[in-house]
Amino acid sequence: MHHEVTLYTRADCPLCEKAKGEIRAAIAMYQLPVTVTESDIDADPALRAQFTDDVPVIYVGGTEAFRHHVTADAFADYIRYRKPVAQTSLADEMCIPCSGGVPALEGAELAALTKSLGGGWRVIGEHHIEKEFTFPDFAQALAFTNRIGAIAEAEGHHPDIYLAWGKVRVTIWTHKVDGLTRADFVLAAKIDR
């Protein structure tokens, strides 16, 4: 059976390049009967609105099979056995910097990400997410704040942090779109981890 594969990508996207390499490797190693079409989301306003910064996305036969990460073996298994591979959690993803020009999340997409994040995060006015963490003293609250700072630096995505005796409140949103993007939820999941 021949499979139509569509990759939704964008230029200068390291995750996209990695996914393309894994798919090429799978096709070569396993002699997979596939035709691959690549679609740059930045060339189509509708695709850019649909996927925002959330690429790569890989469709097989018109159905989403992978998002962000794929390995050659997982891709080959999906093609050969048509079984989806467990998706990574938000905390396993990388924050992808937003270059602006895309709409902020809203509606069903925002609700789905909020549900998958869980952990007591609240969406405020469809604009930002917020969570308050409590600690028995100032020293532990400060240590937690420093851990958040290290995560933020590593991801290149920086939340607003309010530190007080025994509590830390974290507020996250993407300034370039003045609202929420997937990267905000990825950062929140990493903070929870």
Estimate percent helicity: 25-40%
Largest sheet: 4 strands, mixed
Low-pLDDT runs of 5+ residues are 83-87
Radius of gyration (CA) equals 19 Å
What does this structure look like?
The protein has 193 residues and is of the alpha+beta class. The chain is 38% helix and 23% strand. The chain has helices at 14-30, 45-51, 72-81, 107-117, 138-155, 182-192; strands at 3-9, 34-40, 57-60, 63-67, 122-124, 128-134, 160-164, 167-172. Strands 2-1-3-4 form a 4-stranded mixed beta sheet, with helices on one face. The chain is elongated and about 60 Å long.
Per-chain topology:
Elements (H helix, E strand, L loop, with lengths): L2 E7 L4 H17 L3 E7 L4 H7 L5 E4 L2 E5 L4 H10 L25 H11 L4 E3 L3 E7 L3 H18 L4 E5 L2 E6 L9 H11 L1
Helix pairs in contact: 1-3
Give short descriptive properties of this protein.
four-stranded antiparallel β-sheet, alpha+beta, elongated
Give a nutshell description of this structure:
This protein has 193 residues and is an alpha+beta fold. The protein has helices spanning 14-30, 45-51, 72-81, 107-117, 138-155, 182-192, and strands spanning 3-9, 34-40, 57-60, 63-67, 122-124, 128-134, 160-164, 167-172.
